[in-house]
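Sequence, please.
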């Protein structure tokens, strides 16, 4: 397994919709950084792994669903950096294992299944104590890497991930899919005044994430972790492109995803990036962005989940 993390390329996208909108549109291809530990998952894991090393932990424990990108990436990262890993999986065991969990096991992850009622308590001190008693001294990473270490890592997506110093200043709007709000928070902290971060929640009724973002911003700025010299840039949530909720898709999204790959050579995942890219292109048609604006769309990876999603779609199509 390769230890090499490649600088993410920036790819310009051209189309009639973009030309009519009068904007420049680029994609930051975090999906190409590493075959298994890529996208925003790497940035959210990075400082959690470093803290675990510094505190001499040998085992990582984290949480996720059966198709979780975070479980997949944590298993691979643990194998890369010499950690034992435990994945607490929401729901009951189903055999044979799906591609995500099968990969995690191949990387050495121990899978532990937890009923949904107990799983909902995953962020409570009581469950943490239970897990420590059951598994011993483990370094617990929350679901999705959603903690202040995760925010810190995501502050490096824009700027440090750019190939040329100062290139990040060129973008007026940075767009990203949003699940836990950790990535959006880190990006907002890293931008400069005049730039705007736009998040596209992939969950139904995603406006609740605004409170989570404010909480993460407040807690991060009050922490001892490195903070930017400037105040957080402006940000907003665009909640109209969830397509029915988390991991929900329809034919319109499926067609868009296929056409985008064929026209631009950029594969998108069903759960996150396809919805964000669709939303941006739809907003361009509506004149949401100003003439002359420059947009950067952050490709957050997650392509591993497409195999499982396509298996599910094939099953549903036969019903």
């Amino acid at each position: 397994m390769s230890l090499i993390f490649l600088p993410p390329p920036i790819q310009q996208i051209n189309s009639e919709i973009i030309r009519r909108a009068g904007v420049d549109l680029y994609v930051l291809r975090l999906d190409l950084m590493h075959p298994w530990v890529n996208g925003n998952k790497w940035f959210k894991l990075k400082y959690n792994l470093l803290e675990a090393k510094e505190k001499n932990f040998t085992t990582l424990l984290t949480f996720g669903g059966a198709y979780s990108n975070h479980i997949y990436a944590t298993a691979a990262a643990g194998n890369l950096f010499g950690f034992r890993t435990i994945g607490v999986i929401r729901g009951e065991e189903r055999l044979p294992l799906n591609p995500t969990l099968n990969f995690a096991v191949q990387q050495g992850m121990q899978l532990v299944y937890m009923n949904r009622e107990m799983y909902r308590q995953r962020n409570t001190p009581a469950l943490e104590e239970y897990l420590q008693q059951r598994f011993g001294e483990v370094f617990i990473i929350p679901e999705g890497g959603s903690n202040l270490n995760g925010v810190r890592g995501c502050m490096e997506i824009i700027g440090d991930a750019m190939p040329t110093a100062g290139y990040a200043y060129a973008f007026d709007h940075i767009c990203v899919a949003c699940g836990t709000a950790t990535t959006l928070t880190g990006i907002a902290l890293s931008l400069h005044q005049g730039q705007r971060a736009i998040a596209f929640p992939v969950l139904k009724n995603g406006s609740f994430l605004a409170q989570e973002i404010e909480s993460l911003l407040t807690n991060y700025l009050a922490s001892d972790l490195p903070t930017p010299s400037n105040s957080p840039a402006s940000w907003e949530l665009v909640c109209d492109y969830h397509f029915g909720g988390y991991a929900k898709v329809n034919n319109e999204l499926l067609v868009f995803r296929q056409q985008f790959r064929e026209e631009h050579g950029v594969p998108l995942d069903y759960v996150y990036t396809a919805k964000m890219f669709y939303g941006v292109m739809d907003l361009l048609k509506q004149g949401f962005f100003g003439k002359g604006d420059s947009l950067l769309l952050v490709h957050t990876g997650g392509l591993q989940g497409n195999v499982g999603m396509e298996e599910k779609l094939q099953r549903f199509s036969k019903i």
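Strands lie at 10-13, 24-29, 59-64, 84-90, 110-114, 139-141, 173-178, 196-201, 234-237, 294-299.
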